[in-house]
Amino acid sequence: MRLAASFAAAALALSAPAAAQQSAERPPVQPIRASKIVLVGDSTVAVQGGWGPSFCARHVTSFLACVNLARGGRSSYNYRAEGSWDIALAEMRRRPWEQVYVLIQFGHNDQPGKPGRSTELATEFPANLKRYVAEARAAGAIPVLVTPLTRRQFKDGTLIRDLEPWAEATRRVAAETGAPLVDLHARSTAAVQAMGAAAATRFAQRPPSPTVWAAAATGTTIDANGGAVPAPAAANAAAEPMGQAKLSFDYTHIGPEGADFFAGQVVEELARAVPALRRNLIP
User: Fold this and answer.
1) What pLDDT is attached to residue 95?
2) Which range is the signal sequence, renumbered to this chain (predicted)?
């Protein structure tokens, strides 16, 4: 016992100078400065079917935490009504983050034809967005508005831009509130129009059937099940249901390739809109 204690004391005496020397050689540790991004929106942002997973996994550094709280089937109305916005607000607490940013994208489920979700475009939709902006700021976060991702339906070679009114409403709210704007709708519509209907089918969660692809090759998309050109409101309500998640071919949701492509557009626009984030965004 005495011999063991003696050896321990000797070892401690020998290690103390080495530890002191090592401590003297180390520079002072600088506290890190980390921020957070919270994603809020519908299925075109969400973990399944949206650009959010690629954005969080591939486009932010380890100094920018990324939390995807977007949910399929949600509009600017029911995202708040069900309590999802309360969860997002809890994620916006500043401490210990240097800054928290919240990206907000709605529009798809605010369109007519979606009972319990649709909102009135002229007044209700912009009022909802303004309230999100105000409450995010009150929570200490920086809100960034995102115009809705385009759908990929075509008629005679021309992209059907049925979400443009909601994109324009979002732009107006950004201008009126001074919130940074990521104009994903403008970027995505230009890119999808340029590639054409057939090439754009590759962005879906599942490959199209031969019949659907053949129609797209003519410049006009048809119903995902092979039917006639769909009426946008009815077809898109069916493609964006509330409830059980699914993987299928449609012209709204995106798989991994589409997520990578459109997340890249979000990153480019976000770096321009919020220069302070640029150092922690990966192109």
Assistant:
1) 85
2) 1-20
CB 54 within 8 A of CB 251: no
CATH 3.40.50.1110 fits 35-150+161-195+255-280, yes or no: yes
Closest to 112 in 3D by CA, of 147, 79, 77: 77
Residue 183: which region, alpha, beta or left (left: phi > 0; alpha: psi -120 to 50)? beta
Locate the domains of the chain by residue range. 35-150+161-195+255-280
Strands (E), 96-140: 100-105
CA distance 276 to 88: 22
The string of pLDDT tens digits covering residues 184-221 is 999 999 999 999 999 999 999 999 999 999 999 999 99
Q: How many CA atoms lie within 13 A of 84 on its CB side?
A: 23
Taking only the tens place, the pLDDT of each residue in 62-115 is: 999 999 999 999 999 999 999 999 999 999 998 899 999 999 999 999 999 999
The Cα–Cα gap between 103 and 143 comes to 6
Picking from 164, 211, 208, the residue whose alpha carbon sits closest to that of residue 189 is: 164
Strands (E), 111-245: 142-146, 154-155, 158-159, 181-182
Residue at token pair 């050689």: 25
Which amino acid is located at 259 in the chain? A
The pLDDT, as a whole number, for residue 224 is 81
What is residue 269's three-state secondary structure? helix
